[in-house]
Amino acid sequence: MKMKRIPLLMIALVTLAAPPSSFALAGAENFSVGYTKAHDITPNTFTVKTGEKVHIEINPSDTATGCMSEIMIPGLWDKPQPLVKGKKNVMEFTPHKPGAYKITCAMGVQRGVVNVR
Ligand SMILES: [Cu+2]
């Protein structure tokens, strides 16, 4: 029984030593976003400034399936990212042109908007 406690202690120490979340990038506008199958991404509307770095972090509570299983922001973040429960997604970009950029699935169905002022 005593031997079994050692690996547990090691796991606890490794967990404590893990680096902090990448959330809150210095000098950027930071957004923390949730995802559930029932409500999709929340929040889903963002207002940012031209020339200012944006850091959007999505922490899914569910694994998305079907049409909405991937997310992208055409014109700002063009690589579709899968929404997987417990797997953090980070989208970092600096908008260079004002406009309303749709947040979409990989096929282009709208699920939100990034307003660049
Ligand atoms: Cu789709």
Fold and architecture overview:
This protein is mainly β and 117 residues long. It has a single domain (26-116), classed as Sandwich (Immunoglobulin-like), CATH 2.60.40. Helix content is 14%, strand content 43%. It is built from one helix and nine strands; from the N terminus they run H-E-E-E-E-E-E-E-E-E. The protein is globular. The model is unreliable at 14-20 (pLDDT under 50). The site of copper (II) ion has 5 residues, from loops.
What are the main properties of this structure?
single chain, 117 residues, mainly beta, four-stranded mixed sheet, three-stranded mixed sheet, 1 helix, binds copper (II) ion
Largest sheet: 4 strands, mixed
The shape, in one word, is globular
List segments where confidence is low: pLDDT < 50 over at least 5 consecutive residues: 14-20
What's the structural domain tally?
1
Mean pLDDT: 87
Question: Assembly type of the shown chains?
Answer: single chain
What is the helical fraction, as a range of percent?
10-25%
CATH fold category name: Immunoglobulin-like
Assign the structural class, choosing from mainly alpha, mainly beta, alpha/beta, alpha+beta, or little secondary structure: mainly beta
Spatially, the strands of the biggest sheet line up as 2-1-4-7
Number of strands: 9
> What would CATH call the homologous superfamily?
Cupredoxins -  blue copper proteins
Q: What proportion of the residues form beta strands (DSSP E)?
A: 35-45%
How many helices? The count is 1
Q: Roughly how many Å apart are the termini?
A: 62 Å
Q: Over the alpha carbons, how many angstroms does the gyration radius reach? A: 18 Å
Per CATH, the architecture is Sandwich
